[in-house]
Automatic annotation (TrEMBL):
Membrane topology: Multi-pass membrane protein
Protein name: HTTM-like domain-containing protein
Membrane-spanning parts: 111-132, 153-169, 189-207, 248-266
This protein's record includes keyword Membrane: yes
GO CC annotation terms, alphabetical: endomembrane system
Domain HTTM-like: 50-309
Superkingdom of origin: Bacteria
Signal peptide: none
GO molecular function: gamma-glutamyl carboxylase activity; vitamin binding
Organism: Blastopirellula marina
Length: 524
């Protein structure tokens, strides 16, 4: 009995320790398990970008992108715009740091556009997709950089999207590549492809709305003036172009741009938002004749719909809309994928910063044009004016006007006088040409008179400054005359022939140049 009692006592004594160890072990296991389960949650963002989504809407976008680009280049050939824009001019307004880019010899440019048309067709049908997308992008960027007066916001958007396409496997579906190489076939693609396309399509909407948050636009004067030009003489014009309606349309446009992306992202309002988008772009097409832009944006906005919508539409199966085909995601990302995501994040960050840079400049971007491009500032300003270059020989001190239109096509002559930097750039060209002919560097001045959004006209650049001596760095702008004229409730309607009577130009009086003389500033 003593032995039995001792054993029982020993067992009772050790029980608390055993239970304690078991609880500690259980607690340790639980903590370990929780830690293991929490890791994927922390990795959802980068790994989730490689989840699979249906490729259907993205593949359809590839087809539309190729078709639109083919339409663009073929139209340039058909309408004779290749020769008009890239062969006939005697001067091209290069982008800063790209002065070395020049058009191909005469027949070279039509051949290039023919090649671009063929390459765009190959993108649409998905033939040799990766090589073709890279080649087409290089050709399109080359054409884009030839002349600033050809700048369009949608060209810039097409460049951004075209740069992404070679990295996206959009030829897995509905492509000749998928038929030639069955290993390529697939109905899925990584989520990051769809999200990055949506991001770039959202840029002109959202930042276009941000840009409209200024007094000139919201007053309705800008839009009213533009509509007056478009519908002048129309019996409907007096009703459509009232300032009240112009103001209503201006506010509606701003609210549309700012709200349409959130409405497209929210499933409950997506279909209604898409219908509004179609109506918006069709209206713009008939009012403003923006060529490919409205139709491209309608096609691109379908990317905000469920990724499998084309497949369900073609098979007439409503089904459940599902953004994700597979919830599986990689446990870790390779260095290549990490570098790729980093580059994409940096590019997206740049696209957010660029449109906002104009708000950090002292002068209005609509007046100086500094920060106006690559910022989705669409329909914000209407400029009309006149420009005359005056060339003074330093040896004889004789001053005479120069007809700049002899070097330019109609589009260049109409657009470049709005931009002080292009006025300066052409001034350098005049000085270089004169020096080459005479051996003397002349003094080049410009009388540029401009009206912004119906304001009273004023000088755009200082006519006393020798443009040939100014540098083209954007921080050196003391030769640009600040915008001083206030916005008017009614647009300035004095005929151009009388403008010189309302703008003080001491230099013009000094040189005895009158508005009736052939030496007077030319219309732009």
């Amino acid at each position: 009995m003593p032995t039995t009692t001792t054993t029982i006592n020993s067992t009772i004594t050790t029980m608390p320790r055993t239970i304690s160890k078991s609880l500690d072990a259980t607690r340790s296991t639980t903590v370990h398990t929780d830690t293991q389960e929490s890791k994927p949650a922390r990795r959802v963002w980068p790994q989730g970008l490689f989840q699979s989504v249906d490729i259907a809407s993205s593949a359809l976008f590839r087809i539309c992108y190729g078709a639109v680009m083919m339409w663009w280049s073929f139209d340039f050939l058909r309408l004779g715009l290749v020769n008009e824009y890239f062969v006939r001019p005697g001067y091209y307004f290069s982008y800063e740091n790209f002065f070395w880019i020049r058009p191909l010899p005469s027949v070279g440019m039509p051949i290039l556009f023919g090649v671009l048309t063929l390459l765009a067709l190959m993108i649409a049908i998905g033939l040799f997709y990766r090589v073709v997308t890279v080649t087409h992008w290089c050709g399109f960027v080359y054409v884009f950089l030839l002349d600033q007066t050809n700048y369009q916001n949608h060209y810039y958007l097409l460049i951004l999207i075209g740069a992404l396409l070679p990295f996206m496997p959009l030829n897995r579906c509905w492509s000749i590549d998928a038929h030639l190489w069955p290993a390529l076939r697939g109905n899925e693609l990584p989520r990051w492809c769809l999200l990055s396309l949506r991001f770039h399509i959202a840029l002109p909407y959202f930042f276009g709305g941000i840009a409209k948050l200024n007094f000139d636009w919201l007053s309705g004067v800008t839009l009213t003036q533009r509509l007056n030009w478009l519908i002048s003489g129309d019996s409907l014009g007096s009703w459509i172009t009232t300032n009240q309606l112009g103001t209503a349309l201006a506010w509606s446009g701003m609210l549309f741009d700012l709200s349409i992306v959130p409405l497209l992202l929210w499933k409950k309002t997506r279909v209604v938002a898409f219908v509004l988008t179609v109506l918006f772009h069709v209206t713009n097409h008939f009012l403003f004749q923006i060529h490919i832009f409205p139709w491209f944006m309608i096609a691109a906005t379908t990317l905000f719909l469920s990724p499998d919508w084309p497949r369900r539409f073609m098979t007439n199966t409503p089904g459940k809309k599902n953004e994700t085909v597979s919830a599986a995601m990689p446990d870790s990302l390779s260095w290549g994928k990490r570098i790729g995501l980093t580059c994409l994040a940096l590019e997206m960050s740049l696209q957010i910063v660029l449109p906002l840079r104009c708000h950090f400049y002292q002068q209005d971007a609509s007046w100086t044009e500094v920060g106006h491009r690559f910022a989705w500032r669409m329909m914000l300003r209407s400029k009309i004016g006149m420009l005359q270059y005056l060339v003074t020989d330093p040896a004889t001190h004789e001053t005479y006007p120069l007809d700049h239109t002899q070097y330019l096509n109609a589009q260049q002559a109409g657009r470049f006088p709005r931009d002080p930097r292009m006025i300066q750039q052409f001034g350098h060209f005049i000085a270089d040409e004169y020096q080459q002919l005479t051996g003397r560097r002349p003094i080049v001045r410009a009388i540029a008179i401009m009206s912004l959004n119906g304001r009273k006209p004023q000088l755009l650049v200082d006519p006393q400054i020798d443009l040939a001596k100014t540098n083209n760095h954007f921080t050196n702008d003391n030769w640009i005359v600040p915008l001083r004229e206030p916005l008017r409730s009614e647009p300035w309607n004095v005929p151009k022939e009388q403008w010189l009577q309302h703008v003080d130009i001491p230099l013009l009086k000094e040189l005895q140049l009158t508005q009736a003389s052939p030496n007077s500033p030319q219309d732009t």
